[in-house]
Specification:
CATH topology of the largest domain: Rossmann fold
CATH architecture of the largest domain: 3-Layer(aba) Sandwich
InterPro entries: ABC_transpt-TYRBP-like
Pfam family, one: ABC_sub_bind
Helix content: 25-40%
Number of domains: 2
Organism: Geomonas limicola
CATH class of the largest domain: Alpha Beta
Strand order of the largest sheet: 3-2-5-6-7-13
Protein name: ABC transporter substrate-binding protein
Strand content: 15-25%
Number of helices: 10
Structural class: alpha/beta
Radius of gyration: 20 Å
Shape: elongated
Length: about 280
């Protein structure tokens, strides 16, 4: 199905929401967005169409602002000119230029590093794809220097390289830090990180609570509903003629979760583990 939708001027929306695909995760963020953004909006889901002509839709609907949910939507809007774009739930927020504002999915590196220091991990291994996450590694390296932590990094450009790069980290790291990187962390490679954790007796710090049951010690998980609210507040500022500061932000509400069984296996004291979640 080819996308070509015209909305009459009387019913035209102030906000055009372009969503990458239908997903409960995106829907949760969208609910938060709409709660904090009272302007009239219309949502267009890209996966419903074979050949979406977004520049034409924007020209005909003339929204005051566009919200892109997910990386696919953000990439599809690169050819749109003249209308401010706000990003929500994009992994590669730092790789996109020309955005009016946005809130990424990546938790501030300082939050992971604070956990690592409490765990007495001074050498942290990271496997990543530079084409996707070099912008984040730049921030992480700066924060690591301030925390007195060494990042031992390995680059991959194909998921098949991940196992060999993990092997090269044996005996050289005190912890593994998983990034939301679709090249380095896939369904096929995920198990290897936890096998490494078991064989090397080092903790895994992850971005997803789903990884706790697989063997991660700690997960720093983003509140997706609040992520939408945060983005909506920034969009509302733009509609009022105010430039958000900062224009590109990290999630403000993050929940730290711990796998107590893994903590016991790695012989961490109970008091230390409790201190991780203490406010």
């Amino acid at each position: 199905m080819t996308l070509c939708v015209t909305v009459s001027g009387a019913l035209a929306s102030e906000i055009l929401v372009v969503q990458s695909l239908r997903s409960p995760l995106y829907d949760e963020a969208l609910r938060g967005l709409k709660e904090s953004l009272p302007a009239r909006s219309r949502t267009l889901v890209l996966s419903d169409y074979a050949d979406p002509d977004l520049p034409r839709v924007v020209r005909e609907e003339r929204p005051r602002l566009i919200v892109a949910i997910g990386d696919t939507a953000l990439s599809a809007l690169r050819k749109v000119r003249g209308t401010p774009v706000v990003s929500l739930m994009a992994l590669g927020l730092g790789n996109h230029s020309g955005l009016a504002a946005g809130v990424g999915l990546a938790v501030k590196p300082e939050q992971y590093l604070a956990v690592a220091k409490k765990l007495r991990a001074h050498r942290i291994g990271i496997v990543y794809d530079p084409s996707r996450n070099e912008w984040y590694l730049k921030l992480a390296r700066q924060a690591a220097r301030q925390h007195g932590v060494d990042l031992v990094t390995r680059e991959v450009h194909d998921p098949r390289q991940t196992l060999a790069q993990l092997e090269s980290l044996k005996g050289k790291v005190d912890a593994l830090w998983l990034l939301p990187d679709p090249t380095a962390v896939t369904g096929e490679t995920l198990e290897a990180y936890f096998l490494f954790s078991q064989s090397q007796a080092v903790p895994v710090l992850s971005f997803s609570a789903m990884h706790l049951k697989l063997g991660a010690l700690v997960a720093l998980e983003v509140d997706r509903f609040d992520l939408g609210r945060q983005t909506g507040e920034m969009a509302q500022q733009l509609l009022q003629g105010v430039v958000p500061d900062p224009a590109l932000a990290a999630p403000r509400r993050v929940t730290l979760k711990v796998n107590d069984a893994v903590a016991r296996r790695l012989n961490y004291p109970t008091e230390l583990i409790q201190s991780l979640t203490r406010k």
